Amino acid sequence: LPNGCISAPPSPEVAVSHEAHFESFFIRLARASRRQGLKWSPFTAAEVEAAQSRWGLRFPPVYEVFLQTLGSTPSSGWRGRSYFYDWRKDDVAIGRALDMPLEGLLFDVEENDLWLSSWGPRPASARRRRSSLTTLVRAAPALIPVFGHRYLLPTPAACPVLSVHQSDIIVYGDDMALYLMHELAELNLETPWEHGARWQGE
Length: 202
Fold this sequence. Notes:
By secondary structure, this protein is α+β, with helices and mostly antiparallel strands. 43% of the residues lie in helices and 9% in strands. The protein is built from six helices and four strands. It has helices spanning 12-35, 45-55, 61-69, 91-111, 126-139, 176-183; strands at 144-147, 150-152, 161-165, 168-173. A four-stranded antiparallel beta sheet has the order 1-2-3-4. Strand 1 and strand 2 form a beta hairpin. It is elongated.
């Protein structure tokens, strides 16, 4: 797991405090957004559960709070950018986003000679390389699409938001709030907490 991502779930008391901290920031973000023309469409708890059931995914708790507090933005985008996915209706875009990490790796395997030693011996044919890599990727939990090619890890921890483009994978925000401050920098959001204060309530 990336640095700062804790694999074990927190105690119930810490989890509630943690999620409430994010919710408070998301509420402030919604207010700042409305002043600058960015409209959000929050989810109900039932809609969040239905999305997870439909796609066979388990959202991180903080992302569930994000969806119920903020949710999605119009598919027309904002200031020429992409948009936050609407799990209630963006089936084509979400399906494409779920496939994108594998397809990006397959592109680099064939076009840029990518093959990690941890994947085992490199198969001789393109067909077998595709089959082998597809099996490896499908065996891992799917990344959760958030916005364009930004993804969350499907864990109960406070994890970074990743930018995934083929095999170029970087941390785009150390947690959901810091990611949103980066992605929506034009909103000039107030820093929600000091860098590094996460599950432990530091």
